[in-house]
Design a protein that fits this description.
The complex is a heterotrimer of chains A (239), B (549) and C (176). By secondary structure, chain A is of the alpha+beta class. Chain A is built from six helices and ten strands, in the order E-E-H-E-E-E-H-H-E-E-H-E-E-H-E-H. Helix content of chain A is 26%, strand content 16%. In chain C, strands 2-1-3-5-7 form a five-stranded parallel sheet. Chain C is α/β, with parallel strands linked by helices and 176 residues long. Classes of the chains: A alpha+beta (239), B alpha/beta (549), C alpha/beta (176).
């Protein structure tokens, strides 16, 4: 139903680049070696534009647009770095730290954490807003994995990889606003899930220590996300 | 049904109900039903029967009569006497009074100014038709626009008429309706959808509910016309389950229209077919956002997605979709019946036509009104609304609900238009209008709306999910006298971030009540912070020693 | 040349940041002549002095004693440095925050004690309802996150301060 892709030109930070109309701003930026920070986005999963870290300015648009979910158009002029964007990106990272209980020192993902990386990237040396210290759940009912809501940033990668790649749709989101949580099945313990195949894809794509393999000590959990690229390569070869 | 048959029904029905007939019209919209107007209607019917066949009295249910806080309301015809707070035991007296003088103690005092300053287009049928009778609607020229348009106008001409009318989206955004329709009409693909957004959720707003309950066929006709104009064959009305009367009447109206072949295959003998289905929302405010609404109709969790692509291009099930609000659809049939130029004669240059408002808060005449665009806030509040009760001083009027702002006294003579309201930091919104007086604390008002946004945030994007909660906590801190000027600076910083980085309109506008109260009532914030004092005497200050414990 | 009056303070933390400070090793000799250490867990001074140029604070604000101390320190210090994750984020001490203080005390002194089960009421300062990073209580001038911050980072901060500059750590942010 969609119109066939066309080749167009657009400007990314004063650089004129060529692209296809079915590409997103983020894809074109990465092709051209321009770094746009991302957090909820993961190549190989459908973009949802939820974290707002990848927001960019598009000349002529009065709204900031998520690079991961916005298709390029002919003659588009995109600004990926500005004082304003940096400020907003840092604030979003602050929001994530403030809303969870991210105790890096004791986290399995310490030094291998995308949220931590984003704090470094945005130069967030401390929070300028109060921590919320919510009381959150840890579900260790699964034989091999642990879910720790204290470290969850609601990026929904687990939800997407489980539904889009594994086809199990074990994960989903429950609750609204600041009370929103990812849950397994109809909020039953992970270990009692009827649909979970224990494939561990959710654990591997999780950007923080929210989903981890049981028995890991601090800083031991390294995620392996390369399976996604392999999956899509195989798919392409099949077709 | 063919045009001729429709005309015949209308004429017959009008002949059977001449304006000279003694009629008692009882409001059967939710406001009056909640104070037992259904009992009043039953009692009036019994009283009418007793009167005998020699002087018959017709008792009928009608739509919202406007003065909602004075219900149950009854109009006695001829003479259009409005009775208020009618009880079932008043029935015999009212029935007898149709023959001579009105019952003085029940006559509503405000009815003259309240009604004379209004301009009725959307609500033109409210006091005329029984919302559960399609013949009443047809007798009021209902479905005439649909059948005439199908035979005399092409889809493109239909859209042109709408563009000529200057109608803008009544859901709040004010996007030109004709332009939206033509975008969907031009979108590629043969499968398209029409959606009526009836997920009204602003606190204190009841415009859409009143339209749905009072004149449901008007929405069906507007949607069918939209379907013809853009090339869609299916429509959905997304209405909240908390509106049971509206849901019931919509479903009844659909089945009546289908039975008369005003909906369904080959309408009016043409090749155009159109069906409408009602979908119930579970009461999430965010489902009023079009992409979240679409997700909800598709059976998914009701959360928004980034736009573009816009629904006009890729909406319901990925197909081009036209979404308009209830009031927008309610204007369509009248515009097409009387012509775009006629409609453009009302209102101002950039804001044509009329707007329905739900007037609430510290105001004498709480209720539903329809006014021409360009009327001033002062006329609405002091003339139609009858001013502030108890002789208290006006402080601000809040328009646009949680996405809007508070407008202070110095702008009362400003005309009500999309642009002028935006200029003073508020929005037209869907039509909620809450009046505040000197006993309202503006920090408390901002806190109220932020609490609403915080609990209605869907939680998908970070700024809205966390930002609304953080802003709410800061507002609590300020209202309790625990805050510093640094906290105020932080609040303003968070407002800026949440406004510019949130995914959908809910988050992008959530800071508006704070920003607008800060703009005009900063001194009230400062009194809380620097003097631990609430000027309006609303907020309770905390004891400083307890801050850390 | 007048020596810079420096203090170091240990609030609710594990003293790991002080250890990391000492990990500067021989570089301490480089800075030692330029500073006068007026207060520290490493020196025997009971009362926090007046007119301190730089105070380096390790640990979060957990108890009423911490609260009074940090307020006094702020009043008597020109430049306040929050050293380490506890001071900057409340870190491990803050892990009790989602719980009620009574529940925390009960877990420590009653449920997990094998003998002499009672919650002490004197000697130990009362806990605050919530553990706070320092900047939620007083103004902080320099933030050095890390658990602990590296000796290199600490050396950089101290050297810059001794040169009269506020260190720019935006390129050296590290948590955990």
């Amino acid at each position: 139903m969609s119109t066939p892709s066309r080749v167009i030109t657009l400007t990314l930070d004063d650089r004129e680049v060529g692209a296809h109309t079915d590409q997103t701003i983020l894809e074109v930026a990465r092709e051209n070696g321009i770094v746009i920070p991302t957090l909820c986005h993961l190549e190989g999963l459908l973009p949802i534009g939820a974290c707002r870290i990848c927001l960019v300015e598009v000349v002529g648009s009065n709204k900031l647009l998520p690079a991961c979910a916005t298709k390029v158009t002919d003659g588009m002029r995109v600004i990926t770095q500005s004082e304003r964007l940096t400020r907003y990106r840092r604030r979003v990272v602050e929001f994530l730290f403030a809303s969870g209980n991210h105790i890096c020192a004791v986290c399995v993902s310490n030094h291998h954490c995308e949220l931590q990386d984003m704090a470094v990237y945005t130069g967030m040396s401390h929070l300028t807003e109060p921590y919320r210290y919510p009381k959150l759940r840890v579900d260790a009912s699964h034989e091999r994995f642990v879910q720790d809501d204290n470290r969850c940033i609601l990026c929904q990668r687990c939800v997407r990889v489980c539904a889009e790649i594994e086809g199990a749709h074990t994960w989903d989101v429950m609750g609204r606003g600041i009370e929103a949580r990812v849950i397994t099945d109809l909020n039953q313990p992970w270990g009692e899930s009827d649909t979970c195949t224990s494939c561990s894809k959710c654990v591997q794509v999780c950007p923080t220590g929210a989903l981890s393999i049981k028995g890991m000590a601090a800083a031991e959990m390294k995620k392996r996300k390369h399976f996604l690229a392999q999956y899509w390569t195989l798919k392409e070869e099949e077709s | 049904m063919m045009l001729e048959a429709l005309r015949k029904i209308a004429e017959e029905h009008r002949a059977a109900h001449p304006p000279t007939a003694k009629t008692l019209k009882v409001c059967v919209a939710a406001g009056c039903v909640s104070c037992q107007s259904d009992q009043v209607k039953k009692a009036l019917e019994a009283a009418a029967k007793k009167g005998g066949a020699d002087s018959p009295i017709i008792v009928k249910g009608v739509g919202c009569l406007g003065l909602c806080a004075q219900g149950p309301l009854v109009i006695s015809e001829p003479g259009a006497t409005l009775y208020r707070q009618v009880k079932p035991e008043d029935a015999a007296e009212l029935a007898a009074a149709t023959k001579h003088e009105p019952v003085k103690r029940l006559v509503a005092p405000a009815n003259q100014v309240f009604y004379s300053r209004q301009q009725r287009i959307v609500t033109e049928n409210f006091d005329r038709i029984d919302p559960e009778k399609i013949e009443d609607y047809i007798a009021a020229d209902g479905y005439l626009a649909l059948l005439t348009t199908l035979t005399t106008r092409s889809p493109a001409q239909t859209i042109d008429e709408l563009i000529k009318s200057g109608l803008r989206g009544r859901g709040g955004g004010g996007y030109p309706t004709g332009l939206k329709w033509s975008t969907v009409a031009k979108a590629s693909g043969s499968e398209k959808y029409i959606i009526c957004n009836a997920d009204e959720g602003d606190p204190g707003a009841f415009m859409d509910r009143s339209v749905l309950e009072s004149d449901p066929h008007r929405i069906l006709e507007g949607m069918a016309l939209a379907g013809y104009a853009v090339g869609a064959q299916r429509g959905y009305i997304y209405v909240r389950a908390e509106y049971p009367i509206a849901v019931k009447r919509l479903k009844l109206a659909i089945s009546q229209a289908e039975k008369m072949k005003l909906l369904g295959p080959s309408i009016g003998g043409s090749s155009f077919q159109f069906t409408i289905e009602v979908r119930l929302g579970a009461g999430a405010f965010v489902c009023g956002e079009e992409t979240a609404l679409i997700a909800s109709i598709e059976g998914k969790r009701g959360t928004p997605r980034p736009r573009p692509p816009f629904p006009a291009e890729s909406g319901l099930w990925g197909k081009p979709t036209l979404i308009n609000n209830v009031e927008t659809f309610a204007n369509i049939a009248t515009i097409l019946r009387n012509g775009g130029d006629w409609y453009a004669g009302f209102g101002t240059e950039k804001s044509r036509g009329t707007k329905v408002f739900a007037l609430a808060g510290r105001i004498n005449n709480t209720g539903l009104i329809e006014v021409p665009m360009g009327i001033t806030l002062r006329e609405i509040i002091y003339d139609i609304g009858g001013g502030i009760p108890g002789g208290r001083r006006f402080k601000a009027v809040q328009t646009g609900g949680p996405s809007g702002g508070c407008i202070p006294e110095q702008f009362l003579d400003m005309p009500v238009e999309y642009e002028s309201l935006a200029k003073v930091g508020s929005i037209m919104g869907s039509g909620g209008m809450i009046v505040m007086d000197e006993t309202s604390c503006m920090v408390d008002v901002a806190k109220f709306f932020m609490e609403f946004c915080k609990s209605e945030s869907c939680g998908k994007c970070v700024p809205c999910r966390v930002g609304t909660a953080q802003m709410y906590d800061l507002l609590c801190k300020i209202s309790e006298g625990r805050a510093t000027l640094d906290d105020l600076a932080l609040l303003e910083d968070l407002c800026d971030t949440v406004k510019h980085t949130s995914l959908c309109g809910l988050g992008q506008t959530a800071p508006n009540p704070v920003l607008s109260t800060l703009r005009f009532f900063r001194h009230e914030y400062l009194a809380h912070i620097e003097e631990q004092r609430c000027p309006a005497g609303v907020c309770k200050m905390c004891i400083p020693q307890e801050i850390h414990r | 040349m007048k020596k810079t009056r420096v203090a170091t303070v240990w609030l609710d933390g594990c003293s790991g940041c002080h250890m990391s400070f000492l990990d500067m090793d021989e570089r301490i000799l480089e800075i030692a002549p330029k500073i006068e250490l007026v207060y520290s867990p490493l020196v025997d001074n009971k009362e926090f002095p007046e007119d301190v140029d730089v105070t380096i604070v390790e640990g979060a604000v957990s108890s009423e004693e911490d609260l009074h101390k940090i307020q006094k320190i702020r009043a008597r210090t020109k430049i306040l440095v929050a050293l380490g994750d506890c001071a900057v984020t409340s870190n491990v001490p803050g892990m009790r925050n989602p719980f009620d203080t009574q529940a925390v005390l009960a877990r420590a002194y009653l449920e997990n004690a094998q003998e002499n089960q009672h919650v002490p009421t004197d000697v130990i300062p009362p806990l605050l309802k919530r553990v706070r990073p320092i900047n939620e209580v007083v103004k902080v001038d320099v933030f050095v996150p890390g658990c602990p911050p590296s000796a290199d980072a600490i050396f950089f901060v101290v050297s810059e301060l001794l040169e009269g500059r506020l260190p720019d750590l935006s390129e050296r942010v590290k948590f955990g």
